[in-house]
Amino acid sequence: MSDREEDEALGKGLVSHSSARGEPVRPLLEAVLLLAAFYLPAYLPWSSAFSPRDMMKAAYHLSLISVDLPRALFVLYIIAASDGLGPFGVKRIAARDPLRALFAASGAMAVVLCSGLCFSLFGIQNPLLAAAHSGPRAQAILAPLALASSLAVGYCEELFFRSYLIRRLGQAGLPLLWSAIASSLVFGAGHSYQGVIGVVSGSLLGLYFAWRWIDGGNIHEIGLGHGIYDAVVTAIAIYS
User: For burial by CB atoms within 10 Å, which of 12, 96, 131, 180 has the most?
Assistant: First the structure.
């Protein structure tokens, strides 16, 4: 079976092939509405009740899974009903994808470590990690749940901010480079709860995953890679 046939077969469970309508008439409006529906609270500092200590609780990780899984499924439906899954890099996972994802996660860790070292020269620390380190350590039994929530967040965010948003910005007339930069800045701004270091590191991380996305066009490399990266950061926060 060819890659195209696999993509079409994968999409049949979401929407019939005959009902695919092509790119939206107003791609930017659709993207803004989805961004607001999914992530608006992340851009409103007074609306978030998140505490770094929440990462020590099973309920926090369960809530991430329960929120991000439906988000990802909804985005999948939107893209399957419009352009189809193939142009967004959604295809069956290949044997080499987990290895590519490990390399992507390693690169993401390097990007954030370099950013953190630069900020440390000015005495600036990530408030999220600093607050998490101030309390007792989480129990080992929490690890599988933390991994599952990290993968849910990784796939959901990469599906929206890279796979979906870069393409929609391009359909709205923005060149590929500027689409990648814009999506990365929007992604970084959603980390304002971590202070300036969160916004800058998040934007750099977005640029890195945008580069990997443009280079490979594979949702599993960046989705799984992002999830692995998140799992490592979470483990450092709650166990170190």
Answer: 180
